[in-house]
UniProtKB/TrEMBL annotation:
GO terms for molecular function: ATP binding; corrinoid adenosyltransferase activity. The keyword Transferase applies. This is Putative cob(I)yrinic acid a,c-diamide adenosyltransferase. Keywords: Transferase. It comes from Selenomonas artemidis F0399. The keyword Transferase applies. GO terms for biological process: cobalamin biosynthetic process.
């Protein structure tokens, strides 16, 4: 089965990690690849200690965004921690880095030892064109039918939604970021 957690609201990664914990509790093996994340998120330390849990990350310690996605105020707030690129032309080093991450996830799926595979923020990588549909098609060919797959991130492409067995859309109604409250350790990171 393929599950997709998407939308502009908070909680996609959190929901996937909750499912990972449930799966681990059932005695399953879980593989989690976090795309576009290399910073030390609070959950990573704990997840790495859990038996039967494999956690990998790939990305750089900055955000990427397509030109025109951010207003000047938002760009200022991010400062040097964001790289803006022309639509359809993501940074080549980022493409190589995330492609290698997907190759590692494909290799994990090919072992057939995981009952749950989570590709965290893969939807964003696909939406930005950092990863391509063809790369995911190869992943789907390798994925054992008994393995549950969860794809998270905003802007899931329609072809992925069409393939999904379950789609959950997280919808932002109100967010404290709008009041200038930054990410908090243990809550957002």
């Amino acid at each position: 089965m393929i599950q997709v957690y998407t939308g502009n609201g908070k909680g996609k990664t959190t929901a996937a990690i909750g499912l990972a914990i449930r799966s681990l509790g059932a005695g399953h093996k879980v593989y989690l690849m976090q795309f576009m994340k290399s910073l030390a998120y609070s959950e990573q330390g704990l997840l790495r200690t859990l038996p039967h849990m494999t956690l990998e990350t790939t990305g750089k310690p900055f955000f990427i965004a397509e030109d025109g996605m951010m207003d000047e105020k938002t760009k200022e707030a991010f400062g040097d921690s964001v790289v803006i690129f022309p639509k359809g032309h993501p940074p080549a080093d980022y493409v190589a880095l995330l492609s290698e991450g997907l190759r590692r996830a494909i290799a994990a799926a090919a072992t057939r030892e995981y009952q749950l595979i989570i590709l965290d923020e893969i939807n964003v990588a696909l939406a930005f064109g950092v990863l391509q549909k063809e790369q995911m098609e190869h992943f789907f060919e390798i994925l054992p039918p008994e393995t549950e797959l969860v794809c998270t991130g905003r802007n899931a492409p329609q072809w992925l939604l069409d393939r999904a067995d379950l789609i959950t859309e997280m919808k932002e109604i109100r967010h404290y970021y709008e009041r200038g409250i930054p990410a908090r350790k243990g809550i957002e990171n």
